Amino acid sequence: MSGLLEGKRILVTGVITDASIAFHAAKAAQEQGAEVVLTGFGRLSLVERIATRLPKPAPVLELDVSNAEHLETLPERLRQHVSGLDGVLHSIGYAPPSCLGEPFLDAPWEDVATGVEISAYSLKSLSTAVLPLMGEGGSIVGMDFDARVAWPAYNWMGVAKAALESTSRYLARELGPQGIRVNLVSAGPVRTMAAKSIPGFSELEAGWGDRAPLGWDVNDPTPVAKSICAVLSDWLPATTGSMIMVDGGVHSLGI
Ligand SMILES: NC(=O)c1ccc[n+]([C@@H]2O[C@H](COP(=O)([O-])OP(=O)(O)OC[C@H]3O[C@@H](n4cnc5c(N)ncnc54)[C@H](O)[C@@H]3O)[C@@H](O)[C@H]2O)c1
């Protein structure tokens, strides 16, 4: 039986540990037949070491989404490995410590601006950078934590995610005519490095498993990885500008 992503060339950003959502998405994508290229930020030798734990070898390219030269040279560096791209996973988020857990009212604009640039504007930067390789259309997927409501501790990262949600809708509008779909997977809490850096993450994850109609395991990134692969595949061909909720159903509850 052929895999869901057989013949697809997928760029996966955001691997930093083997707990990263991106690592599990890359693994599931390879298991479904995709050819995967990774990008890493900063600690490249670490990302290369983590990449060896994937079922198949995957090249690692350096990409800081706020570095204009990295973005500009991305297509030629990608072409050394793949002739084009059918899918891209943006699994990137960062905000300085003042934006998370600290009093919401205290974060200075410079820190908020960094959070919005790295976590939201970068979806546009990455999409623009890869466009030359997506001539035949494809799927761009970003990672969200439902920003339609206010959470404990998530603070300005929540504001950045709201900007990401809006950015994905405008990108969907702009890139739809080229056959490119842009969607977000809005995940429930998963224990990763980024999650652990949120003081108060335990408050966010507390009770999620009990509340979720389908249950939820914060130590199991597989449901999120599988859903990312589904959105990267050809099986949601008329879906763009959407948030796909992958949270065990918590978003659908009142109390
Ligand atoms: N873990 C959760 O509970 C959860 C829930 C919903 C959404 N998300 C989102 O999933 C995505 C991946 O996070 P994760 O939880 O797997 O954590 P993670 O720490 O494994 O991944 C975050 C990634 O962002 C990358 N990054 C940071 N700054 C960058 C930059 N300037 N350029 C390029 N890459 C940069 C890091 O290198 C890292 O690989 C993020 O967008 C996060 O907000 C996470």
Automatic annotation (TrEMBL):
Family recorded in the similarity comment: Belongs to the short-chain dehydrogenases/reductases (SDR) family. FabI subfamily.
Name of this protein: Enoyl-[acyl-carrier-protein] reductase [NADH]
InterPro entries referenced in this protein's UniProt entry, alphabetically: Enoyl-ACP_Rdtase_NADH (IPR014358), NAD(P)-bd_dom_sf (IPR036291), SDR_fam (IPR002347)
Pathway where this protein functions: Lipid metabolism
Keywords: Fatty acid biosynthesis, Fatty acid metabolism, Lipid biosynthesis, Lipid metabolism, NAD, Oxidoreductase
SUPFAM superfamilies: NAD(P)-binding Rossmann-fold domains
Residues annotated to bind NAD(+): G14, S20, I21, D64, V65, I92, K161, V190, R191, T192, M193, A194
Assigned EC number: 1.3.1.9
GO-annotated biological processes: fatty acid biosynthetic process
Residues engaged in binding substrate: A95
Reactions mediated catalytically: a 2,3-saturated acyl-[ACP] + NAD(+) = a (2E)-enoyl-[ACP] + NADH + H(+)
Molecular function in Gene Ontology: enoyl-[acyl-carrier-protein] reductase (NADH) activity
